[in-house]
Amino acid sequence: MPDLEHARMMLAMAQKDFQALQGMLDDKTFADEIFGFHAQQAVEKTLKAWLSSAGVSYPKIHDLDEIVALLENNGETVPRQFLSLLELTDFAVQF
Q1: Which of the 8 DSSP states describes residue 85?
Q2: pTM for the full model?
Q3: What is the extent of the structural domain holding 9?
Q4: Per-position DSSP letters for 15-49, written without gaps between them
């Protein structure tokens, strides 16, 4: 069953990370790994909101490839133009 309330909460949190990114556009002030972390978080939370709205439970993971695989394994189609965002996983795991 879709959990739309959780999906809304995750999207609101993703929006906060996205807003933080807007304030980090000066690369002399913010290191790449700080910017990348918030970018990864925005994508992760958005994908998890999608999972919740589709009624799919997910584990506590940060790997964007695994999250997309969960979506696709549950009948969701992730547009190919967004797959380059999966490279942001490194900012959650490595940094």
Answers
A1: G
A2: 0.91
A3: 4-93
A4: HHHHHHHHTT--TTTS-HHHHHHHHHHHHHHHHHH
